[in-house]
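dumping these here so i dont lose them again. two proteins, back to back, each one seq then structure tokens. dont judge the mess
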Amino acid sequence: MTELATRAQAFRLIADGVAAGLSAPWRLYLARGCRYLSLSVADRGEWDAWRTHLGCPELSVRVYDAGGEIRRSSVAEVVLDGCRISVELVEEVTTADLERLLVVDPSGAEPEDR
């Protein structure tokens, strides 16, 4: 398969998703040789829609400090025809968001006595 055909297939994959009603990614990166395709989306709903559309089984979340701001990067990946495709969402979070991650039951209900 030539590089042009592979690139055309990658762009067709994105065009098919948009034609199916998904929001267009706000950033698209296609590596030379089409071995890596990265989509950046704007919100969690778009991220869920794209990862479902692509059938991404690999999910990872990373929380990091970016110059005083806390960010969460959610990445879903799949390999199709030798091309690694990732859908990424970067969100700014607050310490309140992080505290929610530490709570087992966010509703505040007490566990039953055993």
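---- next one ----
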Amino acid sequence: MFENLNWWEIGALLLLALLIFGDKLPNVISDGLRMVRNLRNMARNATGDLSRELGTDIQLEDLHPKAFIRKHLLSEEDEEALRKPLRGIYDTVKSDLDGVKDEMKDVAAAADIRTPAPAPASTPATRPRRFDVDAT
């Protein structure tokens, strides 16, 4: 919970809490802990009631709408039927993008200035290379 805070910042927060609340600090801490315990019990009771009403075993993580639908309303066949058309599109787009990626690597390798192409042996003087770029 406090992984982003170092020891100096935690100490400063405790000192600030002591200055603000003074002698009431132990009571404030116990009230905060009691509130957290009550919230956990309420969440546990709510999931228990939902599990009992729906007749399935529901965890707190299952209350996310996507996870709930995937786990409790869709069968594996229904989920596969929903994914099948999208999987074909995904495979087609992925193969097209892989082809574009390979072509871009070839273009980048051909246009790499760091590795000059060997000059022909019959040319007496080497002229600087020019790249004409089409602006279309």
